[in-house]
From TrEMBL:
This is Putative Beta-glucuronosyltransferase GlcAT14A. The lineage of its organism: Eukaryota, Viridiplantae, Streptophyta, Embryophyta, Tracheophyta. The keyword Transferase applies. Pfam families: Branch. It is found in: Membrane. It comes from Cocos nucifera (Coconut palm). InterPro entries: GLCAT14A/B/C, Glyco_trans_14. Its main location: membrane.
Length: 262
């Protein structure tokens, strides 16, 4: 998954203009429209990276990290390199991130070799996306103060958490809205709550696109799927935008400073 994500970043960096890279899985579902997301993010600094992370790895995972660190050390001979590598802190967190274009380019190009070195290190890990971006950004002098410790997903876990989250259903609908998060996971295929999200949050009718200014047919108030010339650049944000703005304001308040790598 990590190599696929980096490959996708490389393709997008060459092909189009964008500000953030959002990785989602087939088990994710939006809780707001595209217009809501665009408007909420439009006032944010473009260097922000939403990466949930922690340096508390747990004894089992920590042992695996130390073993892999030793394997890498045995292949190197430079004393300076070994000294730096021994003192490199590692981080773990959510595989679902929102990365700035600048940080995505740094991970792909790796001009100071940190991303490339850590990529080799994480090659043998089962869940490399849960540690790679966290460890890269928190060890980079240029990017460690751009991280927001949140993945902007609503996810429900067992207590204590198991390997995979619980499936969301109709009983979780209200909590999803109150979380103000733009995405939720994971869902069973064709779960009834998805229809409710389509109808009430995304304003998407059966067989139609999610409500948005880019495709809105003003005559009947629905998105036909055809891009309309008169709607170019038009945004139609709704209540989802206000909910997300409130969450982002809270995350970026003085109580949550940028120096979040610990």
């Amino acid at each position: 998954m990590l190599s696929t994500t980096l490959h996708a970043m490389a393709i997008l960096l060459r092909s189009c203009r964008w500000d953030w890279f959002i990785n989602l899985s087939a088990s994710d579902y939006p809780l707001i429209t595209q217009d809501d997301l665009i408007v909420a993010f439009s006032k944010l600094p473009r260097d922000l990276n939403f990466i949930q992370h922690s340096s508390h790895l747990g004894w089992k995972i920590s042992a695996d990290y130390q073993l892999q660190r030793l394997v890498v050390l045995l292949t190197k001979t430079s004393e300076d390199w070994i000294h730096d590598w021994i003192h490199t802190p590692f981080f773990l967190g959510s595989a679902w991130t929102i990365l700035s274009r600048s940080f995505a380019e740094y991970c792909v190009v790796g001009w100071d070799n940190l991303p490339r070195t850590l990529l080799l290190y994480y090659t043998n890990f089962i869940s490399s996306p849960e540690g790679y971006f966290q460890t890269v950004i928190c060890n980079s002098e240029n990017y460690r103060n751009t991280v927001v410790n949140h993945d902007l997903h609503y996810i429900k876990w067992d207590n204590p958490p198991k390997q995979h989250p619980l499936n969301l259903g109709m009983q979780d609908y209200r909590r999803m809205i109150l979380s103000s998060r733009p995405f939720a996971r994971k869902f069973k295929k064709n779960d009834p709550v998805l229809n409710k999200i389509d109808r009430d949050l995304l304003r998407r009718r059966n067989g139609q696109f999610t409500y948005g200014g880019w495709c809105l047919d003003r005559k009947n108030g629905v998105c036909s799927g055809a891009r309309r010339r008169e709607n170019m650049g038009v945004l139609r944000p709704g209540t989802g935008s206000r909910r997300l703005k409130a969450l982002l304001t809270k995350l970026l308040s003085s109580k949550n400073p940028r120096r979040q790598c610990r």
